[in-house]
Design brief:
Layout lengths: L1 E5 L5 H10 L3 E5 L2 H5 L3 E4 L4 H10 L2 H10 L4 E4 L1 H6 E5 L9 E6 L10 E5 L8 E5 L4 E5 L4 E6 L2 E7 L2 E4 L10 H22 L1
Parallel strand pairs: 1-2, 1-3, 3-4, 4-12, 5-6
Antiparallel strand pairs: 6-9, 7-8, 10-11, 11-12
């Protein structure tokens, strides 16, 4: 099972390093063929409008939506979370609309350095380290979306079914908790994937 990582900008190499440390295989995704060879997908940080334009130009926009509809796990961090939201503000922009939530771009301001915070999470008993770099803020989530972590009451890690989004950068910490959780989604999807291939 391979986790594809959109590799056009941002910290895709850090995501790959974290996954490799957990024994997972990764694949850099830049084309439709790359996506077809992936069993899961990470949309990393960067600049969401640039990533959106790339996805549209390369035919990946609709392909990713179909990828998610088949149950393949998708994880968006920072700009990736913006791409997953149904409603984007400051300014508005189109999105993949895979998570019914409203997100505010640059919600933590245009800081030059990363800001590090610790907040509660349902994934473990200890607080979760969260690194924000011009991070967005999730203003609201629809029913059916599970909040897995928050900071001062504001959701920072959310999930619905096979789609996961973080407003921070878990790949820039030494804590693999979030990536372990994402890999568990891939493991749960594996039997379905194998069954469909067998047919």
């Amino acid at each position: 099972m391979k986790t594809g990582i959109l590799s056009i900008q941002g910290d895709f190499a850090a995501h790959a390093a974290t996954l490799h440390s957990l024994g997972a295989q990764t694949l850099e995704v830049r084309t439709l063929a790359d996506l077809r060879h992936s069993d899961a997908l990470i949309l990393p940080g960067g600049e969401s409008t640039t990533q959106l334009q790339f996805l549209q130009e390369e035919g990946l926009f609709d392909a990713i939506r179909q990828f998610a509809a088949k149950g393949n796990p998708i994880f968006g961090t920072c700009a990736g979370a913006i791409l997953l939201a149904t409603h984007v503000k400051n300014p508005p922009q189109p999105s993949l609309a895979l998570l019914d939530m409203t997100i505010l771009r640059n919600g933590y301001g245009r800081q030059l350095a990363s800001d590090v915070f610790f907040g509660p999470t349902t994934l473990k008993t200890d607080p979760l380290e969260m690194v924000f770099i011009r991070g967005p803020i999730i203003e609201s989530v629809a029913s059916g979306i599970t909040v897995l972590a928050n900071l001062n009451g504001s959701p920072t890690l959310v999930q619905k079914d096979n789609v996961l989004a973080a407003t921070f950068h878990p790949e820039l910490t030494s804590d693999p908790t979030v990536h372990q959780h994402f890999l568990s989604l891939l493991s749960n999807h594996a039997p379905t994937k194998k069954s469909s291939r067998a047919k």
